[in-house]
Amino acid sequence: KKDIPVANFTIHEIHCSRNIEVCCYCHESIPKTEMKNHVESEHVQVTCKCSMKIEKSLLEDHEASACPLRPAVCQHCELQLAFNKLHEHESYCGARTERCSGCGLNVMVKDLKEHPRVCG
Q1: How many CB atoms lie within 10 A of CB 109?
Q2: Do 60 and 88 belong together in one domain?
Q3: Which of 14-28, 40-54, 97-111 is predicted with the least confidence, judged by mean pLDDT?
Q4: Contacts of 57 (CB under 8 A, 6+ apart)
Q5: How many helices, marked H, and strands, marked E, lie in the chain?
Q6: Largest CB tally within 10 Å, which of 80, 103, 112, 120?
Q7: What pLDDT score was predicted for residue 86?
Q8: What is the Cα–Cα distance from 32 to 16, expressed in whole angstroms?
Q9: In the predicted model, is pLDDT for residue 120 greater than 70?
């Protein structure tokens, strides 16, 4: 998969066919001596904590951006919880009210940070 001078092409092609394999999973050129290790380290199926089976090489990205059990932070109270529980928590958390000690009104928790600007 590289440009080779015409004068060296035949020798290069023989060398490649003896020493290099194309991975059937990712189509990368890998030395034959490293192919077993490559497949075991990059393409073996592992199970995420969410029970999804995924290639080992893709696990880190899955855990960071797609896993329903990845950590997420509530925008209202900054509690860290699993992403799949975030929406339910925020709908409760943001709608909860607390009495303002300044004006005595019940203020939604999600509005407490902004309330002092409008509080008498």
Answers
A1: 15
A2: no
A3: 97-111
A4: 41, 42, 43
A5: 5, 8
A6: 112
A7: 94
A8: 10
A9: no
